[in-house]
Amino acid sequence: MIRAVGISFPVLLAVWACSDRLSAPPQESTTPDKPGAFAAAPSPGFLPYGVPVPPGQEITVPPPPIDPKRPVIHNPHPEWNLIGKPGFIPPKRLPPTREGTSGSFPPPGQADRGIALNGQPPGWYGLQQMNDAGLDVILPEPLGGSTVADLYAPTLLPPGPDPQGPCIEITTIHERLSSQYFTHHYVGFWDWCQSPPQGTFIVLMDMSQVDFENSYIRTYNGKPALGVAITYDRGGSYCWWGWL
């Protein structure tokens, strides 16, 4: 059974997904095995936890790593999720990439690039990176009579200790429809454990919306960027958490 929900707080959003071994959502706790908010301990290499960064202010260091001892904070903006909105058609996902790329070229109008790690490293509980939001990306018109062009980049996919592999992949999606002259910019949480093996989007948000930009995007290394992370519940619930 799969469970997924979006949760956020000023500049923090989390999404969770579980393999079919779990019949109920993981319980919130402050145990070391529960992914939660950003780490509280300040570090010269990271932003201090809990200190808001005003919209438009540039940052010189990334957010601190996720601290698995902190409880989850619930979502005051579920309306930002486009999945399930009447009339909205989510981008088409490329064939599964969890086992690595085949080396062949994608079909015209489809491409992706990102980080995907394999194996089961001991002691780890997740991955974190800063992504270029790519709000200035302009896609050409779809090719070959296609009605849509999609660019999935950058993506983030961690290694998976669960035999089914990781449940969550975070990806930036740039999309242009043949009926439109502009490019859409989304960030999405793809759940590989729902409707396997292909999976499905469980959360998709428009990064060009003012409210989203003010909450999650800050200038980093001279470009609009957002911090993303994926963590694994090492407590045995086979659940994954995706974070902004």
Give an overview in words:
The chain is mainly β and 244 residues long. It has one domain (5-92, 110-243). Helix content is 3%, strand content 32%. It has one helix at residues 210-216; strands at 5-9, 12-18, 110-116, 126-132, 148-157, 168-177, 184-191, 200-206, 218-220, 223-232, 239-243. The strands form two sheets. Strands 1, 2, 4, 9, 10 and 11 form a six-stranded antiparallel beta sheet that branches. It has a five-stranded mixed beta sheet with strand order 3-5-6-7-8, with no helix packed on it. The longest helix has 7 residues, at 210-216.
How many beta strands in the DSSP annotation? 11
Q: Roughly how much helix do the residues carry, as a percent range?
A: under 10%
The stretches of 5 or more residues where confidence is low (pLDDT under 50) are 1-11, 21-42, 96-102
Mean pLDDT: 76
Proportion of β residues? Answer: 25-35%
Bulk shape: globular
Number of helices: 1
The major β-sheet equals:
6 strands, antiparallel
**What is the first-to-last residue Cα distance?**
25 Å
Radius of gyration, taken over Cα atoms and rounded to an integer in Å: 18 Å
- In the residues, how many domains can be counted? 1
Order of helical and strand elements: EEEEEEEEHEEE
Structural class: mainly beta
Search tags:
mainly beta; six-stranded antiparallel sheet; 244 residues; globular; five-stranded mixed sheet; 1 helix; disordered N terminus
